[in-house]
Design a protein that fits this description.
mainly alpha, 2 domains, about 65% helix, about 0% strand, flat
Length: about 140
């Protein structure tokens, strides 16, 4: 049997769905919720089941031709690792710098790594500031500044 990209994607999606369903059991219920038909666990359990069924369907229906096999040649794993490190640093910087400054710095570094022209970067800062204002004012301080 030839393992294709569809098989690998289905297996990864199946693992994520199983893990999501496992951790959905840890969602605490309010007293008396165990007798209710719809609880805080209902939607996560449904999503886990739907994800599992769809991933199994993807694994079963994937074609095993050689045109869809996974080829690692030509993929830039160095860039991917730099972007993953950048995401981790963004997560750490959120508490120290706040949402606005951490996101702006994340976008600057990300666009620099990807080689995006500077004219495309300027419009993103307005988007970040807009999201910040939408999330802080109406939500009464949902994001730390």
């Amino acid at each position: 049997m030839t393992i294709t990209k569809d098989h690998i994607g289905g297996l990864v999606f199946l693992c994520l769905s199983v893990a999501y369903g496992y951790y959905a059991r840890d969602i605490p219920l309010l007293p008396g919720d165990e007798f209710e038909p719809f609880t805080a666990r209902s939607v996560p359990n449904a999503l886990a089941w739907i994800g599992g069924v769809l991933s199994l369907a993807l694994i079963v229906t994937a074609k095993s031709d050689t045109a869809n096999t996974l080829r690692l040649a030509g993929l830039d794993f160095g860039l991917v690792s730099k972007l993953l490190i950048l995401v981790v640093l963004f997560g750490l910087a959120l508490d120290w710098l706040g949402f606005l400054l951490a996101t702006v710095l994340f976008l600057i570094a990300g666009y620099w790594l990807l080689g995006t022209p500077a004219k495309n970067v300027a419009g993103r800062f307005g988007s970040v500031c807009g999201r910040y204002l939408v999330c802080t004012d109406p939500a009464a301080g949902y994001l730390s500044g």
